[in-house]
Write a structure and sequence with these properties.
Structural class: alpha+beta
Order of helices and strands: HHHHEEHHEHEEEHE
Largest sheet: 5 strands, antiparallel
Radius of gyration: 25 Å
Distance between the termini: 57 Å
Helix content: 40-55%
Number of helices: 8
């Protein structure tokens, strides 16, 4: 049985390893910026997967793709595969299994409640954490530390950035009408428009029971500063003729 060379651990912080980590750094920053840009478009339209989700997934995917291009620098410059074992393993198969398995784990935290979807950012952070573990496992310590810091900063402060940037928040509306009352789609659309909202195309869901009709739809603010608040909207809905019950919530769809 061969012993580990004395310079084995120092090889993980060699000049060549740090240079490769610097390449990973630049790619991570670029992927983060592009992911945030795509995610902002989703945030602007009130979607569940916003800047944090897109930024995490884009950045983690970039990290995996970049490190695959430098196999000679894995495990401290291939010292492990050249010295300790006679047949070099194929870590890419392990990586593939990890990201696939963790993807199923992340899907378990995504919840759908009516027109609302939650847990996407948590799922993306779990997947990103698996990539951090992969980076540590193959010896890209500096890149793992950077990805950790960027992921944590993204989850803590991206939500504030989303609130500061212009956006069009969405509201999920459920209306239950008294028996015998027949609402009209054009009336609901006009009422929403007068209050700074527009009904999302294709979002109407109608359910008829013995106790009357129930309408569900999503209203998107034309401007988050001009649209009335959820509390004001609630006060006005309570005065509408024919409405027996209603439910309002911020929609993330």
């Amino acid at each position: 049985m061969q012993s580990i060379p004395n310079d084995f651990f120092s090889s993980f912080w060699s000049q060549q390893e740090l240079a490769v980590n610097l390449v990973v750094f630049s790619n991570l920053f670029g992927a983060l910026l592009l992911g945030l840009l795509v995610g902002y478009e989703r945030t602007y339209h009130g979607r569940a997967a916003g800047m944090r989700t897109y930024g995490l997934v884009c950045m983690a995917s970039c990290a995996i793709t970049v490190i695959v291009g430098y196999p000679s620098y894995w495990y401290g410059g291939s010292t492990l595969t050249q010295t300790l074992v006679h047949t070099a393993p194929d870590p890419t198969r392990v990586i593939q299994g990890i990201v696939t398995g963790v993807g199923f784990l992340g899907a378990g935290v995504i919840m759908k409640d009516g027109l609302n979807i939650s847990g996407l950012t948590t799922a993306a952070s779990i997947w990103s954490s698996s990539v951090i573990g992969i980076l540590v496992g193959i010896g890209f310590y500096s890149a793992a530390i950077l990805l950790t810091l960027l992921s944590a900063a993204l989850m803590m402060w991206a939500a504030r950035l989303e609130r500061w940037l212009p956006s069009r928040p969405a509201v999920s509306i459920t209306l239950r009408f008294r028996p015998g009352f027949s609402p009209h789609e054009d009336v609901l659309t006009r009422v929403a428009r007068e209050r700074g909202y527009e009904v999302a195309a294709g979002s109407f869901q109608i359910r008829r029971t013995g106790e009357g009709e129930e309408w569900r739809y999503v209203a998107i603010a034309r401007d988050k500063d001009a649209a009335i608040s959820l509390s004001d909207l609630s006060a006005e809905l309570g005065k509408f003729d024919g409405v027996e019950e209603f439910q309002l919530s911020h929609a993330r769809n």
